[in-house]
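Minutes, methods subgroup
Present: GH (chair), OT, SY

1. OT presented the first of two proteins processed in the latest run. Sequence and structure tokens recorded below as shown on screen.
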Amino acid sequence: MSSDSDDNAIFAEISDERRSIARTLETLSPEQWATPSLCDAWTVRDVAAHLVAPLIVPLWHFGLAMARTRGNFDRANQLMTQRVRRKHGDELPALLTAHADKKFTPPGHGPMAPLSDVLVHGLDMCRPLGIEHHVPDHRMITMLDFLVPATGAAPFKGPELRLQWRATDLDWTRGDGPIIEGSAGTMALVLTGRSSALADVTGPGADRLAAARASRPRS
């Protein structure tokens, strides 16, 4: 169980990452804002609005959206994102900076959830744009340790697949099994379900993961 001091340290990392992403977003052209992100059906502006939404929208508004969508979390999230994008589309970098210190966590989750969210969504926006958004090594390692169990089990539905995850651009390895290698950012994208990132990982573990994904029944 994490202590208050541990949580506060993670919240400080979240705040710094939000400000860093906001500085990157401030440089974007209209065409870049409209670029498809790595999130299905979302543009870069949509992803930025998603990051801002929980910082400025009261929780009870999300409750109403959940009721409207009959408890469909993903659809409620889309509604909140669309609302923030329409109302604040040109103010997203400023809002992300102004509310960077907000200690929001999804119900039932600690601060590692929003840390992973902001880091992965930064990649979702920057990679399609060819922008190198720097994340400190220690911050990336903290997220990767959160995403991968000590056993190396791939966090996906279906039969358990244990792999040895190995970053090629920083000192991080986790798990025991067939090796899957790639940059830390690529590993984070693979671990959070971005299928396009599978093309950028290598090793026998990558082959097994791709095969397991391909054989997984579609919901």
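2. SY then presented the second protein from the same run.
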Amino acid sequence: MNNSTPAIAFENIEKNFSSLKVLKGISGKIYRTEVVAIIGPSGCGKSTLLRCLNRLETIDGGHLVVNGIDLSHPHFNHRQLRQLRTQVGMVFQQFNLFPHLTVLENLILAPCKVLGKTRKESAQLAGLYLEKVGLFDKASAYPEQLSGGQKQRVAIARSLCMNPQIMLFDEPTSALDPELVGEVLQVMQQLAAEGMTMVVVTHEMQFAREVANQVIFMDKGVVAEQGSAHEVLTNPQSDRLRLFLSRLNRDWQANAN
């Protein structure tokens, strides 16, 4: 394991929604260039944890440091939030593209507004990342003219335009038709190969097995198992994880048929 300062460190973090305890003392470390897959049943707290990592949700207890920024500090301020958002990109399940803007306009908005780049600089950057995700020819299209897989690849390119050091993915393929999943995972696989630090909430076990360095299995708001992808997915220690993986495998086989 890498002994340098982790890109993300969380210790005993808690998150409540009114009386519902969603995260119950979660701890972990994610190092630079690592790909970490977070898996677990619906409602176990996976997406909430991810949203805490870029402060879309605030934590109610514990200690959380992301890219050197202490998100749990009582005096965390707007300047630090802005800094965090430029360094940590997020790709959502539902794409979140602006429907009234073209693909190119979706991509240049944040670099212009947040990074202060000129429209020309932002457009050059957008062209570079659209080419990277194989959609350079779609720059003038509107989101409604794209397939789900294309929308998600545009969403990834949009995040990359901010030159993030860490990328968070919240079930990026779950809203896609099965035949479109591969094109999105291929882009993510390429990012991983280039050394992007990535945290991925996913049900795609093949991706986790082949690409992730570390897998975190969450259950009922706690980390139930954690380790290398091979350890966790090939040799699960708990009945709960064995049941979860066998259920996913059954669903995958049913969809394949």
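Chair's summary of item 2: The beta strands are 8-17, 20-30, 35-39, 61-66, 69-70, 88-91, 166-170, 197-201, 214-219, 222-228.
Next meeting: continue with the remaining queue.
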